[in-house]
Amino acid sequence: MSSAAARPAADPIGATLLFSLLLHGVLLLGVTFHFAKPTPSLPTLDVTLVNVANRDAPDKADFLAQANNSGGGQSDHAARPSQPFSGALPKPDPGTAMQAVAAATPQPREATPRRMVTTSGRADFSVDSDTAHTEVPPQEAPSAAELRRQQEMAQLAAELRDQTQAYAKRPRKKYISANTREYVYAAYMRGWSDRVQRVGNLNYPEEARRRGLHGDLLLTVGINRDGSIHSIDVIHSSGQPLLDAAAERIVRLAAPFPALPAEAKVDELYITRTWQFLPGGVLRSK
Description:
A hairpin with a 4-residue loop joins β2 and β3 (about 230-235). The protein has a domain at about 175-285: 2-Layer Sandwich (Fusion Protein Consisting Of Minor Coat Protein, Glycine Rich Linker, Tola, And A His Tag, Chain: A, Domain 2), CATH 3.30.1150. By secondary structure, the chain is α+β, with helices and mostly antiparallel strands. Strands 1, 2, 3, 4 and 5 form a five-stranded mixed β-sheet that branches. It has helices at about 10-30, 145-170, 185-200, 205-210, 240-255; strands at about 175, 215-225, 230-235, 270-280, 280-285. It contains five helices and five strands; from the N terminus they run ααβααββαββ. About 30% of the residues lie in helices and about 15% in strands.
């Protein structure tokens, strides 16, 4: 027989027992794993800063701002207010006023001569002179041309601010024609056209009927919110000054017109139509 000792075999029971102890230890100690939740973000609020404010608050605001601003314009789409410059709200007094101000540059002066204080004995303190001054070198004062340029810049800034205010306060306009599909304006334009056509046929120019004049002209009439006439412009003439003048006279005879409907959020309504002076003394809107 061989005298070499046999190797001991691996003990599976001991390995299983060790793994079981580790597993129970993890469960008993409550060792868990979890993902860290991100911090919730704060809500944001978008605020538009406007440079022009007025007293009229809009019925339905398109943007939030620090002041009320009921703007005008011809666009049907809401656009964020923008200005060529940014800054605080304008003050009520435009321009610059002549006021007495202190000198911007100090007067030149020489430095105080150095002084020495001596004592007869030894001392541990020092004395500071309250009359000592540092040297201030002479500085060049602004020239008359530079002062004039600064004043011109201030005046231009005031004019630009006034123009911006006038632009924001301009009336809201709406242009419509025979191709308009919006029911609010289409219904109003239909009634307006029938009224002018009826008045025109009752007051057809006698001279045009006698001379047999006829032709077409394109006319744009501006109507205020209360129904009064704002403007009358001949866009395309008929070639006969008599007919052009007659068309304007007929529109003024038909005024005043009904007030604009409450749904129309405009201050001025411009209606463009073609008016036909036909043979036989007939006026027709096209």
